[in-house]
Structure formats: structure tokens, C-alpha cells
Write a structure and sequence with these properties.
The chain is an all-alpha fold and 158 residues long. Bound molecules: zinc ion (ZN).
């Protein structure tokens, strides 16, 4: 799923638990849970092949990723009740994005065994190994539902 959905959902579930000891691992685990649902996302082929194509060819994809991440952060800041703890929610949201960050580190190095094992796990968790096997309509609906549930959780925080 796209990063802004992971960020918002991680912040929402982490915040809803109201217990950082639980919230931190659950926010991280939420990434894999959401990725196991059917989804489609924008192409980042040049990022996935950055070790071959180089940074200059991946710039546009990296901008897409950065915009996606900061969109989640902006929505969180806009929605958040003033009584809620922004730093904790940002940490939960950040943790929910870490698995994709680990995949990016693998794309950069391709040589670290732990990162390779993580990438294989991260890929296996996806219901379809080939993104195009999920239609756009079906691929977007679960992301919309994840955002709606995140918004409901975030608005109920106090
Ligand atoms: Zn992922």
C-alpha cells in the first residue's frame, strides 16, 4: 500500500491503543497486515532498480515516495485533536512505514542477507506477487477503507 495509508493507519492504531509498549510493535505489524490486503500503487520501478539505474533516474520516483509520506503526515497534523500527542503518533506512523524503508535499503545494497530475507517476507505477504493482478478499483478500495478507519480512530483520540 502507499506510504500515506501506512502512516495514517499506524498512527491511528498506535494512538488508539493508548499504550506505547503495545502501540509501537502493533504499528509496525500494521504494515504487513495492510500489505496482505489486495492493493495497487504508483510505480516505483526506478527505485526498485536504483542499484542498476542510479539515483538520477530514480529522482521522480523518490519525489513520489516523499510526497506520499508527507501527505500522510500533513493529514495527521490536520486531523489531530489538540489534546493528542503528535510526537507519539508520528512515531507510530513512521514505524508503520519502516518495512518499506527496509525494502529501499535492500534496493540500494542488494547484498545484505537480513535485508534480503526481509524483502522476501515483505513480498510473500502480498496476496498477489504481481501488482497488476489486482484491478485498480479493487486495489484502491481497501486503501480507502484503511484511511476511513484511520480517520475515525484519529478523530476519537483525546
Ligand atoms: Zn510494504
Amino acid at each position: 500500500m502507499i506510504l500515506s495509508v501506512h502512516f495514517l493507519f499506524g498512527a491511528a492504531v498506535g494512538g488508539a491503543l493508548n499504550n506505547p509498549t503495545l502501540g509501537l510493535p502493533i504499528a509496525l505489524a500494521s504494515h504487513y497486515m495492510l500489505d496482505s490486503l489486495p492493493h495497487r500503487e504508483y510505480s516505483i520501478d526506478n527505485v526498485e532498480n536504483i542499484s542498476v539505474v542510479g539515483w538520477h533516474k530514480a529522482v521522480i520516483d523518490l519525489f513520489k515516495v516523499a510526497f506520499d509520506f508527507f501527505a500522510g503526515l500533513v493529514v495527521l497534523i490536520l486531523l489531530l485533536p489538540s489534546s493528542a500527542s503528535l510526537p507519539w503518533l508520528m512515531l507510530f506512523g513512521f514505524l508503520a512505514c519502516v518495512p518499506d524503508g527496509l525494502s529501499f535499503l535492500h534496493f540500494l545494497t542488494k547484498k545484505n542477507n537480513l535485508l534480503t530475507k526481509h524483502l522476501n517476507f515483505h513480498k510473500r505477504i502480498h496476496i498477489h506477487q504481481i501488482k497488476e493482478e489486482t484491478s485498480w478499483g479493487f486495489g484502491i478500495i481497501f486503501q480507502v477503507l484503511a484511511v476511513i478507519s484511520s480517520v475515525v480512530f484519529l478523530l476519537s483520540l483525546s
